[in-house]
Amino acid sequence: MIRRLLLLTLVLLLLAACRPISAEPGSRAAGAPGLGDPNFAFLGNGGYDVEHYTLDLAVDVQENVITGTTTIRATATQPLSSFNLDLLGLTVDSISVDSMPAGFSRRAHELTISPQEQLSAGDMFTTLVSYSGTPQPLTDPDLAFIAQGWNNQDGTIFVVSEPGGAMTWYPSNNHPLDKASYTMRVTVDAPNVVAANGVLVETIADSDQVTYVWEMAQPMATYLATLAIGDFVRVEGPGPDGTLIRHYFPRDMAESLTAAFANTGEMVDFYSDLIGPYPFDEYGVVVMPFPLGFALETQTLSVFGTDMTMEGVNAHELAHQWFGNDVSPAAWNETWLNEGFASYLQKLWSEEELGSELLDDGMRQYYEAMRQMEIPAPGNVAEGDMFSMAVYERGAWVLHALRLEIGDDLFRQVLRTYYDRFKGSNATTADFIAVASEVSGRDLTDFLSGWIYSAEMPAIPE
Ligand SMILES: [Zn+2]
Prior knowledge:
Elements: E1 2-3, E2 48-60, E3 65-76, E4 83-86, E5 91-97, E6 100-101, E7 103-107, E8 110-114, E9 124-133, E10 149-153, E11 156-160, E12 180-189, E13 193-196, E14 199-206, E15 209-220, E16 227-230, E17 232-238, E18 244-250, H1 254-260, H2 264-275, E19 282-287, E20 294-296, E21 301-304, H3 311-320, E22 327-329, H4 336-354, H5 356-373, H6 389-406, H7 408-422, E23 425-427, H8 429-440, H9 445-453
Parallel strand pairs: 2-12, 18-19, 19-21, 22-23
Antiparallel strand pairs: 1-20, 2-3, 3-9, 4-8, 5-6, 5-9, 7-8, 10-11, 11-16, 12-15, 13-16, 14-15, 17-18, 20-21
C-alpha cells in the first residue's frame, strides 16, 4: 500500500468488533477464534487450514446487494466440534459442512460453525456458506484513509481490505497466515465488467447478465482478494516470459492511462531479474474513475485511484507482488517486511534511470529528516504505526544500510535467497535476519536489530 497523506499521519488501527469470544461450555474441541496476532488477536481462526475458496456471487450493482455462496475447502489441524470463520455484517442464510446442514452462531465478526459430526485432525472438509445483503466497509474513524473491504462509490464497486476488510464480503480465515487459492464466479448486469485476482478463465453471457470466472491459482492472503465492477475496459500488453499484462481502466480515461502504465512490463522484467521470476500468471492494475488517496497491491491486480497513477506508485505496488503477496508477513506488527521492501524496491527501479549516487543522496536526506523528526523503529509496530513513515522509510533504510554494510552483490543475493526461501508462504523479521547472516557469512543479528528495533537510528555504515 501507499498512502497519499502518509507523512507523519499516525493512524490507530482498531477493529472495534474484535472482542474475545469464550468457548461454549463442553466444546473442548472448539477451534480458536483467533491466531494470536500481536495487533489483531481475533483476526483469523485456529484449528484448520484453508486450501481453496470458491466465491459464487450475484451482485446487484445499483442496489449494492450481493447474494451467493462461499465454499471453503480446508483441512482440520485438530479435532473440531466447532470452528470459526470471520464475517462482519450480511445475513447468513444457511451453512453446510460436507453437504450436511450445520449449526451456527454469530458474535461480532466471529461466525461459529458446529458440524453435525466432529471433525478429526487431518480431515479435509468442505464448508458452504449461503449469504446475502449489502456489504458495509469497516469504517474505523482512526483509519480515515481506508474504508476496509467492499466499497460502492457512484456505482463502481471495488474492494481494498488491508488489513481486516475481507470479512466484509466473504467468510474466511482472515489472516495472512492462512493463504489459499481462489475461484471467483461473479454475475452482474451487462454492461458492467468484473475484474478480479488471477486469470479470467471464462465469461458467460445469459440474456442481460454476464458471469465472470476468475481463477487465482497461487496462494493468496485474504486481504489481497479484490473485485472491481464498473464501466472498465481491458487493455492488454506483453510482459516478460509470457506473463500477460492486463489493466482495467475507466472507459473514458483509457487512452491516457494506457500511456501512464505503458512500462509496467519493463518493470516486471526488472524485478524478475533482481528478485526472481514474477510469481503469478498475469499482472495489471485497476484504476477507479475517482481519487482514493492510496493504492493497494491486491494480488495480480493492484487498485489505484486517479490520484495515484504515478510511475513510482506503480513500481511500489508491483514490488509488493514479490514482497507482501508471495512472501507474506506472519504478523501485522511486521508491516515493514511489506512496506520497507516495496519502498526500497521502488527506489531501485528509479535508480536504474537516475544512478546509485542520486539514490544514496536521497536516502541520506531521508535519514537526516527522520532523525530530526525522531521517527520510531520500523520493527514490532503497534496498530497505529502499521502504515506510518517508520515502516516505509525507516523500513527502506534497513535494506539500504544492509546494502552499504555487505555490498551490492551480497545484498542482491540476500534479497533473492530470502524471496526464494519464503515464496508462497510467510516470513518473519527473524527469518530475514537469519537469511542475511547466512548469505553474508557473518552474524548480522546485532547490526540489523539496531536498524529494525532501536528507537534511535544507528550511524550510517562507512
Ligand atoms: Zn506498499
